[in-house]
Specification:
Length: 122
Amino acid sequence: MFFNNHPIRIISRPKLTGFGDHWGVQLPDGNVAHLTPNGEQVVSLGDFAQGRPIKEVRRAASEQREQIMQRLSLSLQHRGPYRLLDRNCEIYATWLVGETPRSPQVEGLFFLSLIAAFLHFA
């Protein structure tokens, strides 16, 4: 059972298709805010997991709780489009918890693409 003082944390699970992980933010009530191609959503932990294992990526600072909940409210009121390179689930999750928005998976793919291009033209 989750209580309203549950720590806010970035969590992940394996993507349903393809490779990599899907990120979300577990909220104080245990539900998970995440961004999909259908937009921002708040779902139960079970709906987020989709039968896959959940990992904690990291916890948000407890003093950020109010700001995180304000950002969530704003994002649900002013929904934006999903974009793989600059507005994906990782970028949304890191922004939501007050970190610099970034996507380690996209950054890794970009880096591997640069290496492959360098090796191809070397």
